[in-house]
Write the structure tokens for this entry.
Amino acid sequence: MIGAYDHSQYAIRSTDHPTPPVTCGAVPVAIAGRAVSGHLTLRALTAADFAEARVVADAWFGRPVGLTMHRLFFDQLGPAGLRAAAAADSERMLGVLLGFASLADPELAYVHFVMVDPAARGRGIAGALYREFGRRMAAQGCRRVRTLAAPTNGRSLRFHESLGFVGTFASEFVGPGQDRVVFERTLPFPPAP
Ligand SMILES: CC(C)(COP(=O)(O)OP(=O)(O)OC[C@H]1O[C@@H](n2cnc3c(N)ncnc32)[C@H](O)[C@@H]1OP(=O)(O)O)[C@@H](O)C(=O)NCCC(=O)NCCS
């Protein structure tokens, strides 16, 4: 006989990551479309952040992101996943970075996914997420960071080039008709200008 399925046994608990949040220097951010000058708080993602990210991700990317933003990243990345918010309004997510240190190459850190609220772009939020991720990964021995961008994603290409990444075009890198630019640079990042 098959026993009753007790859902409560399988409830996912949000992990309380010990890494303290960091506050970046004055990054002008926008709250509800209104530009304000303030600090940005970056902290480790938790499983509890998935729902909020899921609600905004397709709109922020301008297309369905599907399982590229699988909840496993929120459950499992710990301090290598980052959430950005304005210090003055920490409830509202302004950006997310999903990354990790490679198991295949311990000197390589990898950014799988990054997104910033369209209302807060061009103010250095993605740059701040990358710098904090790079700092955390360098502290555990990574010397390089890699990420992919679609050759059609001009904003992403410019962003990565402005952060000092060097791109190599890779034909059909993630499948038929799916070219990518493979971006790589050394760690650590220089401090923000
Ligand atoms: C790509 C993306 C993450 C960049 O986020 P962002 O927060 O706007 O990035 P930043 O503000 O750090 O940098 C963007 C630009 O603003 C500039 N900038 C950074 N800080 C700035 C500041 N304080 N004032 C003015 N400009 C600034 C950067 O130099 C950069 O210039 P560029 O246009 O020449 O690249 C964002 O556009 C996004 O979420 N896009 C949709 C999702 C996506 O495509 N993700 C990448 C998949 S590979």
User: Anything to note?
Assistant: Residues 7-16 have pLDDT under 50 and may be disordered. The first strand starts at residue 22 and ends at 31.
